[in-house]
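Attaching the record inline, Q. Sequence:
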Amino acid sequence: MKKLRPLFLLLLASACQTPPEIPQVHFQHDPAIRVDVVAAEPGINTPVAIDFDATGRMWVVEMPGYMANLDNTDEGLPCGRIQILEDRDRDGFYEKQTRFLDSLILPRAIALVYGGLLYAEPPNLWFQEIGPNDQPGKRTLVDSLYATGGNVEHQPNGLLWNIDNWIYSAKSSARYRLRDGIWEKEATAFRGQWGITKDDWGRLYYNDNSNQFKGDWLPPNTLLSNPYYQAMAGLNVQICPDQRVYPLHPTAINRGYLDGMLDSTGRLIHATSACGPLIYRGDLLPDSFQNNSLVCLPEGNLIKRNILSTNPVKTRARQAYENVEFIASEDLAFRPVNLKNGPDGAVSIVDMHRGIIQHKTYMTAYLREKIMALRLDTVVNFGRILRISGTEKIPTPLPDFSSANVSELVDLFQSPNGWVRDKAQQELVFRQDKQAIPFLKTGMQNEDDPRAALHALWTLEGMHALDQIQWDHLLQQADPMLSFTSLRLAGPYADCKPEILESLHNRGDSLVDLGLALYAHSICQENALPLLDSIAQKYPQEQLFIDAFAAGLEGHEQEFIDRLSVKNDSLIRVLKTSQKNRLENKLAHWASPRNPGTDGLTRGLQLYQTHCGVCHGATGQGNAGLAPPLDQAPLVTGDPEKLILVGLFGLEGPVHVNGVLDSFPAAMPGLAENPDCSDEELADILYFIRNAFSPEPYGFKLEDIARWRKQGPPNGKTPTENSLLSKFDPQ
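Structure, as predicted:
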């Protein structure tokens, strides 16, 4: 890669109609792009997600309640909002803001679909109709359990409309769609943590904080048709195993004290807060960026670029550059958390522009100290949207979706801009105008543009018109992804013609063979078994194919086992497991009903606030004359067994904390006799305390707590500092 050049961005500081003069901030970026500020504070505050409507306006979700201070006192306040941003004078800056919804608590995701707004405000997922003059209309509760349990960093988000007409979320095992006026919810694979994206075929990609780019090798739910089998391959794949990052400056991170986290200059080595992945599907960046992935790393103040390759089923990725990043900033408050393809073919960066991006539940004492030293806790009430574009291309005019007829909308499937193609499909599915069907049937035969054909085919699915397709020709289209999708959708509608399926197998394309393994039986049933036997011989140990057979042959496993011409122990074992699970009604993990839950640290924080925080303080700072500090206290940082004893049986003072003798008048009560605190709840409390107030986190085992509860305190008395020292640290 060429040497990166600096970019001095104008970062806005007032509500003027045009960007004012403000201090310059140093960026580095790929020289083939430019980056511009298109919206900023005070017009927006702490943005976390955006979407664009059919006229090109930007809708922004704002979450100012997230970690506005180290004590996190604003999290429950109804200060969130959703705004509409407009660039009326077309100068590239969104100078007009219109508040659409406000008084929200931690809103986290939006999708402009079905002529309205789908948005998440935990625990609910709502659909809000948009009335005249952008006034909120009727509101429908789509799911009251969309985001239950956990905390703001570990709840569903994303709301990505996919080519299959379903809406997917990260950190979720559910998908949604509006069909015939009714919202449907269906099980899907659990994916990612924060942010989700798709490619042109509809495969989903995501990440978690320490894995910058993961994804699926096949479109969603293709391996999930058998509820009695858990697929083992092709889902949650480490697409890019290289987690190396290259920030421009020393990095303040949660576990920076651990070996291997920071290099000798104090800079982050590997990803720790990856989020907001995006597959670029626009037409305003150089052609070499098409179908690349971009990933946000807010802890390092940077955005990463990966180059994808598929051969022919398994997608892999490599980092685009060595020792540098796609975009990196020296501004510690540059916090990219989401990315979005836009109507103009560019990419929008959602810059939360927040000093603190680590939730209190997981914050270590080490990071707290770093935040205070750098004064990052003072960086609040900011927020920016940046736009990435090419240096040589000019955006094409935005189509008028509202006035376009069905033929013109189908023609938009040939646009080089994926956002335009998606919006045209959404508009057609929303209208349900049957006059579009002849144009769609013609469009799905477009062998010169398989992407356009895929959109046409899925639009027919969204319009309940798959029964009107002549499947023989469509199944034999040359593009393997189109053939795979046709096999997927043809099952209930296509006539059984084994010779067509055989001709597909004769291509020697593994993606088409995988489609046959999944769907040939649904099209031809017993007539497909010889073909499936041939495929099983060709890929005897490929787990992806074994999973495909288990998914496609649900209920017919024994027929296929009896038909196998060559014994395949791995395949037979999987098929027999599926049989056994069905007889025992043992559902796969993805198909099992899930009760709303939460994680131990979140539960621990909530329980700490109930049982401990009143005396020890929200930040473990203690209260003079009432309770000692917990932060870095020896009984917290030392042998975990001491902390178990204190939690169970209390503590009688005085104790030494940070070299100072702290006396308190009454013994701290233990929780052993508290009927409202179980062993599991105490484990969560201790887990939170140890994580928040010690440099060495530790997970507490229920058996250790139960053992000490049964034994009682040493000497049968309330523990003291001296008794604990003599028990665990004898001289």
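The CA atoms of residues 150 and 392 lie 45 Å apart. The radius of gyration is 28 Å.

More tomorrow.
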